[in-house]
Amino acid sequence: MVVTKNRLVFSATAAVVTTVAVTSAGVHLSQSQTVFRESPKEVVDEVWQIVNREYVDSTFNQVNWRAVRQEYLSRSYSDKQAAYKAIDQMLKKLDDPYTRFLEPKEFKSLQIDTSGELTGVGIKLAQDEETDKLTVVAPIQGTPASKAGIVAEDVITAIDGKSTQGMELSKAVSLIRGKPGSQVTLTIQRGNQEKEYQITRQKIEIHPVRARSVNTELGEVGYIRLSQFSAQAPEEMQNAIKRLKKQDVQGYVLDLRSNPGGLLSASIEIARMWMDEGTIVSVEDRQGELERRESQNPALTEKPLVVLVNGGSASASEILAGALKDQNRATLVGSQTFGKGLVQSVRGIGDGSGLAVTIAKYRTPDGKYINHKGISPDIVSKLSEQQRKELQSNRTEIGTSDDPQFAKALNVLTNEIASQKGSLQETANQ
Fold first, then answer.
1. Are strands 155-159 and 162-163 parallel, antiparallel or unpaired?
2. Mean pLDDT across the chain, nearest whole number?
């Protein structure tokens, strides 16, 4: 995967790095649609008004936002594309990569990503901020891309003959997706070689949770990998925990590595499955604390828990990891997380377009902001470059003895299980 210091961008048959507070899936504002046909300028102003009302920073990152409005409303716009371009320029003045305008196809893609249902070839993409190269994070197992031979770290240089140089990730997403049964040709650069792959699109089912039991010297333990916080994630997580409980596992490893986030509500629901009580996250808008999310119901399990994190664990992943760490519910193993502590609201606008606007920031239960900082693991376990490449090229090794970070997490978990059993035995003997 491609992770840069300043930005982590995921999309295409994958997850969304945004922690989405409100998803206006299927919402189309008829009044705005009518106005748009008469005056594209009104849509520019509508975007400005939403940012003016809701943006998390009342100084708009030291930008004179009223002057921006005057500048962009003084222009004439011949059509919607001219208006869209102006909106992009206007929002860039905020210097906030997470507040962005979504053209109709992009907005639909975001809705699909968070719903977990899509049609495409089955790859996860990232974009390097410095080189702008579109890089395959991983093919989804069993999908057309995987069967065609696409592998992690492949660079997509063209889509149906159209160069991807300088192409926005969202644009690549819209080109790769399409109707089931249709074909797309991806030009792939692998090392010094370039090759074309003609792939037939199909409906992709994304299951964000995968779980299994692992045999250890102290008995069975549960391994749960959560790849994104989509709408299905809470139900799938609940089913996984219940299934592993029936197998009488002694503890759990929850793998949040390279999970770029998703729905805020999903992270809250999942945190409550592991915590009996206590604060999960505090959300603050420009006026201060907006709300505090708590866990007040019995957890699904009290067994020891180790959480795996890395530099690709962002946003909603950091909310969950931060809550479990601060509430002493879990031990974090791995490397520093990405550091995205902002929440976006996604609003439908005009002719099916949308706006993602940063409306809040969050604190962990201990009151820490993690934006640009991330969360430090309790136990540091880093992969060497060679180990990282080996896992990327053979993703079936993730969560096995060939995965050094998992092996470390398993060692930590077995020690905690042994310690807990020792304490219970000591108590029973008293």
1. antiparallel
2. 85
